[in-house]
UniProtKB/TrEMBL annotation:
<dbReference type="InterPro" id="IPR019595">
    <property type="entry name" value="DUF2470"/>
</dbReference>
<feature type="transmembrane region" description="Helical">
    <location>
        <begin position="112"/>
        <end position="135"/>
    </location>
</feature>
<protein>
    <recommendedName>
        <fullName>DUF2470 domain-containing protein</fullName>
    </recommendedName>
</protein>
<keyword id="KW-0472">Membrane</keyword>
<dbReference type="Pfam" id="PF10615">
    <property type="entry name" value="DUF2470"/>
</dbReference>
<keyword id="KW-1133">Transmembrane helix</keyword>
<feature type="domain" description="DUF2470">
    <location>
        <begin position="9"/>
        <end position="87"/>
    </location>
</feature>
<keyword id="KW-0812">Transmembrane</keyword>
<dbReference type="InterPro" id="IPR037119">
    <property type="entry name" value="Haem_oxidase_HugZ-like_sf"/>
</dbReference>
<feature type="transmembrane region" description="Helical">
    <location>
        <begin position="189"/>
        <end position="209"/>
    </location>
</feature>
<feature type="transmembrane region" description="Helical">
    <location>
        <begin position="155"/>
        <end position="177"/>
    </location>
</feature>
Length: 220
């Protein structure tokens, strides 16, 4: 059997840098550590063919160590990646999360346009005189019938859009934000953007989900 123990340090460094949330899941699911305590600096300390050891800081500030066995025992350290991924998927699923994490708010140039349009609708609903000025004789000079139609229904249109976007934010986006463990502040920002953009923001977030689940492999 080829000795591949030289990759242990690389695996440990990678887990501690990019997969802290998975270490937290391991502690909660496989060692029944309280979920709030498991968030306190979970660190992969050691890795062997039979187990891994993860540390965390308890409520008294004491560093605690938990050994989590591998079942069955690994045949080589190169098998550890698949094993850690498998354990991460199962642990995250039991907690109602994804094994992947999304930290960045997907906001691109097209989002600025959509937000601008939504804010414009809000301003027109708040102060219809501004809309009347834009569509009236002073600027666009629309026909009186068109002006009357716009002024009669623009508030209804704005309210309908807002209700639909709020439903999309609550029913579709919020479960995704929770599943991918976005921080509270960023979660609120995403919900606000969805209330303004609706499906435009949802499509951007789903692209971010796809990128998280199918990361591009670094070139050698």
């Amino acid at each position: 059997m080829t000795d591949d123990s030289h990759i242990i340090s690389r695996i440990i460094a990678h887990m501690n840098k990019d997969h802290v949330h998975n270490l937290e899941d391991y502690l909660v699911v496989y060692s029944h550590v309280d979920s709030e305590i498991a968030k306190r600096n979970p660190t992969l300390e050691t890795l062997s063919l039979s187990s891994m050891t993860i540390s965390y800081i308890d409520m008294h500030g004491t560093k605690c160590f938990i050994r989590i066995p591998f079942e069955p025992t690994l045949q080589s350290y190169r098998d550890s990646r698949n094993k850690l991924v498998e354990m991460a998927q199962k642990a995250a699923a039991k907690r109602g999360f994804s094994e992947y994490l999304i930290n960045d708010i997907p906001f691109k140039f097209k989002d600025w346009i959509t937000v601008f349009l939504f804010i414009s609708l809000y301003i027109f609903a708040y102060d219809p005189s501004i809309l009347q000025y834009l569509i009236g004789d002073q600027l666009l000079n629309l026909s009186s019938d068109v002006q009357s139609y716009i002024m009669d229904y623009h508030i209804t249109v704005f309210r309908t859009i807002l209700i639909i976007h709020c439903l999309e934010a609550i029913v579709i986006l919020y479960p995704l934000l929770r599943k991918f463990r976005m921080s509270t502040l960023k979660k609120m920002t995403c919900l606000l953007l969805c209330m303004m953009e609706g499906m435009v923001f949802l499509s951007s977030f789903k692209v971010a989900v796809d990128e998280a689940q199918n990361p591009k492999k670094p070139k050698n």
